[in-house]
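Notes continue from the previous slide.

Worked example: a multi-chain complex. Inputs as given:
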Amino acid sequence: MSRFILLIHCPDTAGIISNVTSFIYSRRGNIVYIDQYVDVENRIFVMRLECEFQDAINLQKLKEEFSEKLALSYQMFWRMYSAENKLKMAIFVSKYDHCLYDILGRYKAGELPVTIPLIISNHKDLGHIAEKFDIPFHHIPVSRTIKADAEKKHLELLSQEKIDFIVLARYMQIIPDGIIKAFPNRIINIHHSFLPAFAGAKPYHSAYKRGVKIIGATSHYVTAELDEGPIIEQDIARISHSHSIKDLILKGRDLEKIVLARAIKLHTDRKTLVYNNKTIIFT
Amino acid sequence: MSRFILLIHCPDTAGIISNVTSFIYSRRGNIVYIDQYVDVENRIFVMRLECEFQDAINLQKLKEEFSEKLALSYQMFWRMYSAENKLKMAIFVSKYDHCLYDILGRYKAGELPVTIPLIISNHKDLGHIAEKFDIPFHHIPVSRTIKADAEKKHLELLSQEKIDFIVLARYMQIIPDGIIKAFPNRIINIHHSFLPAFAGAKPYHSAYKRGVKIIGATSHYVTAELDEGPIIEQDIARISHSHSIKDLILKGRDLEKIVLARAIKLHTDRKTLVYNNKTIIFT
Amino acid sequence: MSRFILLIHCPDTAGIISNVTSFIYSRRGNIVYIDQYVDVENRIFVMRLECEFQDAINLQKLKEEFSEKLALSYQMFWRMYSAENKLKMAIFVSKYDHCLYDILGRYKAGELPVTIPLIISNHKDLGHIAEKFDIPFHHIPVSRTIKADAEKKHLELLSQEKIDFIVLARYMQIIPDGIIKAFPNRIINIHHSFLPAFAGAKPYHSAYKRGVKIIGATSHYVTAELDEGPIIEQDIARISHSHSIKDLILKGRDLEKIVLARAIKLHTDRKTLVYNNKTIIFT
Amino acid sequence: MSRFILLIHCPDTAGIISNVTSFIYSRRGNIVYIDQYVDVENRIFVMRLECEFQDAINLQKLKEEFSEKLALSYQMFWRMYSAENKLKMAIFVSKYDHCLYDILGRYKAGELPVTIPLIISNHKDLGHIAEKFDIPFHHIPVSRTIKADAEKKHLELLSQEKIDFIVLARYMQIIPDGIIKAFPNRIINIHHSFLPAFAGAKPYHSAYKRGVKIIGATSHYVTAELDEGPIIEQDIARISHSHSIKDLILKGRDLEKIVLARAIKLHTDRKTLVYNNKTIIFT
């Protein structure tokens, strides 16, 4: 039995659901999940569908037929995946270790359907954690003068290991456009505030200063505009006047790791779809 | 333009989605919402669908065709509603006023797509609120000796006003089987605990005694088993050791009214479907 | 038996708690609640204390003694209240009714230890609600040309009724400096976003456009800087891509009324203390 | 400079705060934190206090004076700790690894002020994790026939390493009374439900069956009554009908590890105090 995931967005018009589901059914496929959404304002149709086939199915052939019979006439942006396929994930870190420990703990515990061929860092500090968990660790320093050089090394490593997507686990460097373009909507960042509040540096300090009663964390895809990419997941924690900045940072660590982990899970389960700088989340 | 809501549950088999959506499409209907779920354990297929027809459509005729062409062969339990149809809601209260104030405030503010032909109470206390909001108020005392009599009066009033569903807004009497049978999955109760914890009387006292750190409220459909009906909505609030029972009761008031209001909204939007003592919530 | 509430902030130094509690104890008072906090960064000591006296106590005399023996030497900003004293609250509204219904429902249900001598509005629309709940309603139009005139009328009414604090229950006008100065940290506003995100007009539209996964509401004291006053309370609700702006507005109504009600409760229980544009909340 | 933590509970009477704070002040100590609570129902006074002394202070002498001058006359249960003192923590595990990974990640990241001299397990499975993090791992099988033997080995190891408290990180064995008595209110368990709902085995299965809309986790001190000990911390997560039991278990993992970590932090910061089977949490 083979299982496929289909993601679509296209101009909204009548008959899409009926025609797509008939396409599956007529090939003896069974739809096990369908979630659809119409963006009325922009007249855009969005759908995620999971289907199973009893018979052996050639994914390449299915894609060609789908393209020819449906995708073209409905002007679809679409992707079709085998549900069994494991994504290759790269992790970028700097000096904070809590997100890295959390991701690697989940990885070893079998929570994440990925392989992790490499961890890249601009500092040496977390190399010992990579070693504990048997993941190759690449120390690539970044500074103003060697920026282009670092980017080149990054792209080589990512290409060499056939990386599908990148997780910035509190990586404290701005990602250059070259990498963003090579991984469109495939770089996941965790920002330690409830965006759009407190974008930029030192959000916990700003939150403390403003006297907010709740702090947050936001995971989003990286785009050329800093902290402006499509949001995948957010969560919050209550604080009070009695919490110091240090307390906020400590409380924030738990938020950051949980929110980032949820975003990674949504991405690897192919439950995200981006358009107009928004992330549709299928549940 | 007319809009319909279709709710289905039936044994799971291949082709249901394809056939139902084709049925709509072939009548020049457009599906604006579809949400589906397969209960793998029990092999049950569940779906909610909203569709729009440009042409004038005869709901009765559509139902007949649907029944003949699809419902019978798939052994469906199904309902089809006009989305414009307003439900008639009865409210039962005793002495607590917070849920009643909240529901009537929402009603007057246009939040609830219902009409409220009557409020029934076993006490006179809240009559003045009904009067403020211009809703007929029926005082029907209930006691061991006149229980059957009260039930008869209730059923007469409910039938006379063609009531569609009942909301127990902290009504402190057990609903007799006769009324439950007349309104299957159409009586909504609010219980002031996080069920199944603290079922029965005085849940805030029990919560206080147990030293829980979180209290809750649960809205559910009423069945013959007390506090055991299918859950529609739940929510919680944090408490601490410093809260007295009185504090819990006060904090609980907000929980109760919000959770009950959400359950009423889900019910009136036809976003609930009950089977196996569980409530499917379509979002 | 009489009960008093004491609120203090002053430069931090050793011995304050010991001396204040001895002051109470030596007058045969019993401390039933004490909560204290030291702002280490600014070296400020903050305390809230509730005490009971078996004997009849002259509040005025107690205040004089406290001032002479303690407040002066420790350079305290301090207030002492009789716990029995009910505050006089004015409500300002425009056209949105949900917060007004909620406040008046709570008021009638006995949840709020206040009297409400008047409701002021720049529109006539909500007069019927004030009437339902038997509260005097004053329609005072505000426009560019008659702004100063309106402010004068507001101040007259507030003074005439000896109003202690003002609640802006979605009042859609900027409060002029004259009123802010007359009610420092005594005007409570509800802003329909998670401040500092989406300050200013149309926050739900901005939230929708940004694609956030969580919306919020913020209650704060009004200062001369719009939406920049000290925050009293915040809360949030999860949303998804499938929610329209209209859905956000509807979901937001519940948030707004709950957050505003909590802020009013904290204020009337004398559990707030403002300094450095932050609100200390005693729990 | 030395910092001490004082925890007290005793019959409520006038003057305790005044006398205790004067005791500190007269020894040139400065109170940096005080939180107090009166259980009115049972007339019990509870307090947590942190104080700093500029001068070198002999903790033993301070304790003796406190005992003589205050503790005896007020019939206090009390403890006084040096804030610098690190607790020795033992971890018990079986086969689930998520809580263990989380605790050890926090430990290595410096979040927990403890040392971890040993991990004890009734299975060999998680030995490799202990090894990764360089913690001695003791495999002590438990079965009906060798129960007493296992208990003896446990107590020997705990005594040998001078263990202060035990964390059951999803340890799937009932703790014998001998160990509970040796560690009163010093064994922290994580139960994978919102207690008192779904006590006992397989709570996720029961939650699924009941159709709850929210699941929870509860951390509590272990007493002789299974799942009935004083609750330290609880939290919840929203679920829907579409979540399978497997999904609940996965979602629950995050809840369990966060709730357990918070409970450990509260315990090691000496912010918990137990009486009448309730845990007072100082914030």
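Summary box: The helical segments of chain D are 16-26, 59-71, 98-108, 127-132, 147-160, 177-182, 203-210, 245-268. The longest strand of chain D covers residues 29-39.
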